[in-house]
Amino acid sequence: MEFRHKLKELRQQQDLTLRKLGEKAGVSYSILNAIENGRINPSEDVVLALAAALKVRDRAELLALAGHNSSQ
Predict the structure, then answer these.
(1) Domain map of the chain by residue range?
(2) What is the distance between the alpha carbons of residues 35 and 29, in angstroms, rounded to a whole number?
(3) C-alpha angle 39/2/56, rounded to 5°?
(4) What is the dihedral of CA 61, 67, 68, 71, to 10 degrees?
(5) Buried (b) or exposed (e) across 13-48, using 16+ Cβ within 10 A?
């Protein structure tokens, strides 16, 4: 699964709009929109901010889906 699809799935499971998720994560709507539409790949910092906002336990999985290798 691609990061953008996983992000959308997690966001929708929590009934969050892109704007609400952006507020929680400190990431702009335009960046989130571009990520979900596959126009950009998120930085490691953005992935970690989204993981925290979405209360994701396995941050390493999200980092891997976004193409980042990390020991988080």
Answers:
(1) 3-65
(2) 10
(3) 105
(4) 30
(5) eeebebeebbebbebeeebbeebbeeeeebeeebbb
| DSSP 8-state secondary structure symbol assigned to residue 42 | P
Q: Do residues 67 and 5 make contact, with C-beta atoms less than 8 angstroms apart? A: no
Q: Are the C-beta atoms of 32 and 3 separated by less than 8 Å?
A: no
Alpha carbon distance 34, 38 (integer Å): 6
CATH fold, domain 3-65, is 434 Repressor (Amino-terminal Domain) (1.10.260)
pLDDT tens for the chain, 72 residues: list them. Answer: 899 999 999 999 999 999 999 999 999 999 999 999 999 999 999 999 999 999 999 899 999 999 998 554
